[in-house]
Write a structure and sequence with these properties.
3 domains, about 35% strand, alpha+beta, Alpha-Beta Plaits, about 350 residues, Elongation Factor Tu (Ef-tu), domain 3, Gyrase A, domain 2, six-stranded antiparallel β-barrel
Length: about 350
C-alpha cells in the first residue's frame, strides 16, 4: 500500500506480472475510486465543455463517452479526462485523482456559461473490471446484453443491494472490459459480488503497478509522466482528440492550429529496447552519433513482450519508426529503436 493523491492505494496484491497477465488473459479488478467525478449540468453545460476541452463534446450522443483534455492556455495540458454524456444537458467528467482539485478550480474559473457544477468525487466509487472474461463475470448481474455495448458507450442500471451503477465500456488496459461507477455505499457489495462470480474465470485483484504496465503496453499517456502542463496535445500524439474542423472557439485553439500546420520540435514516441535493459523515467535518449535528443517519460519491462519498453519525447527529426537510438542506463549506452504505438498489437 502507498499514499497516492490522498488515498491509500494498493500497488500490488499477488505480484505485478501475475496481475498483468491475468488482465491480458482472463480478468483483473481494480479499485480506481481515487479518480475524480464531476457533474456538469444545465443550460450552459455543453458550451462550457466545448470551450474548455479539445474534443467535440457536441458530437456525443446520449450514452456515449469520449477521451479529451483540458488545454491550459499556454500550450500545455491541465489534465486528460473522459467525458460521458448522460443527457443533452448533463455530463460526467472523470479526471485524474492527483489533478482533481486543480481541475475543479479550472472548470469553475471558466464557467462563465452558467452551467451547474457538482464535485461528486468523494461520494462516488469506481471499480474497473478488465480483461477478456470481464463480460462473463459481469453479465449475470445486469439486464442489458453487454455484448451490444460498443467501446466508449455506457448504460445506467439499478442493481440489487448496490443501487444505481454506471456501466461503461472503457478502460485503461487495452484488454477490454468495463468501468463501474456507483455510490460509496454499494462499492464493497459490488466488489465482493464480482470477486465471488469471477473466481471461476480466473479473476484476481490488481494494483497500481499492473495498471501502469498494462497502459504502457498500449501506449496510453499517464498524466505527470507523458503529458503535463508543458506538453502540447500535438507533441504527445493526441492530435486525434483535437477537433479543429468541427469546433468553434476553445482554449488554445490558435496555438494548437499553428502547431498542426507548422509542426513541433519534439514528439512522444514509443521505444523498444534492442539490447537488454529497462528504460526508466528521466533516462536520457541519444542518436547514433551520441548527441542528446530526448528523455524517457515512462518505462518498464513488458510482461507480455518480455522486453524493455518506454515512451520518450525526442527531437521531431528523429521521431520516425524503427530509428535506432541509444538510452543511457547508468553509465552505459543501450541500443533501442523507435516503434509505432501501441507496443502490444491486437
Amino acid at each position: 500500500m502507498v499514499e497516492y493523491a490522498g488515498y491509500e492505494m494498493p500497488v500490488e496484491y499477488t505480484g505485478i506480472t501475475m496481475e498483468h497477465l491475468a488482465v491480458r488473459n482472463a480478468a483483473g479488478i481494480f479499485d480506481a475510486s481515487h479518480m475524480g467525478e464531476f457533474w456538469v449540468k444545465g443550460e450552459g453545460a455543453l458550451e462550457l465543455l466545448q470551450y474548455i476541452t479539445t474534443n467535440d463534446v457536441e458530437a456525443l450522443n446520449v450514452g456515449q463517452a469520449q477521451y479529451s483534455c483540458f488545454p491550459n492556455g499556454n500550450g500545455g495540458i491541465v489534465d486528460d479526462l473522459i467525458v460521458y454524456r448522460h443527457a443533452s444537458d448533463k455530463f460526467m467528467l472523470v479526471v485524474n485523482a492527483s489533478n482533481s482539485e486543480k481541475d475543479w478550480q479550472w472548470i469553475n474559473k471558466h464557467n462563465t456559461f452558467g452551467a451547474d457544477l457538482e464535485n461528486a468525487s468523494d461520494r462516488m466509487a469506481l471499480i474497473a473490471l478488465q480483461g477478456p472474461r470481464a463480460i462473463d463475470i459481469l453479465q449475470p448481474l445486469v439486464k442489458k446484453d453487454l455484448s451490444e455495448l460498443p467501446a466508449f458507450h455506457f448504460i445506467t442500471e439499478s442493481l440489487e443491494k448496490i443501487g444505481e451503477v454506471i456501466i461503461s465500456a472503457t478502460g485503461y488496459t487495452g484488454a477490454g472490459g468495463f468501468e463501474l461507477y456507483c455510490y460509496n455505499e454499494g462499492a464493497a457489495i459490488l466488489w465482493d459480488a464480482l470477486i465471488d462470480r469471477g473466481k471461476m474465470f480466473g479473476l484476481i485483484p490488481a494494483g497500481l503497478a499492473a495498471r501502469d504496465t498494462l497502459r504502457l503496453e498500449m501506449g496510453y499517456c499517464l498524466y505527470g509522466n507523458d503529458i503535463n502542463e508543458t506538453t502540447s496535445p500535438i507533441e504527445a500524439g493526441l492530435g486525434w482528440i483535437v477537433k479543429l474542423k468541427t469546433k468553434g472557439r476553445f482554449i488554445d485553439r490558435e496555438r494548437i492550429e499553428q502547431q498542426k500546420q507548422s509542426g513541433v520540435k519534439r514528439k512522444l514516441v514509443g521505444l523498444e529496447m534492442i539490447e537488454r535493459g529497462i528504460p526508466r523515467k528521466d533516462y536520457l535518449v541519444y542518436n547514433k552519433e551520441q548527441a542528446e535528443i530526448g528523455v524517457i517519460t515512462s518505462g518498464t519491462m513488458s510482461p507480455s513482450l518480455q522486453k524493455g519498453i518506454g515512451m520518450a519525447y525526442i527531437a521531431a527529426s528523429e521521431a520516425y519508426p524503427e530509428n535506432e537510438v541509444l538510452v543511457q542506463i547508468r553509465s552505459k549506452m543501450i541500443k533501442a529503436q523507435t516503434v509505432k504505438l501501441p507496443f502490444l498489437k491486437k
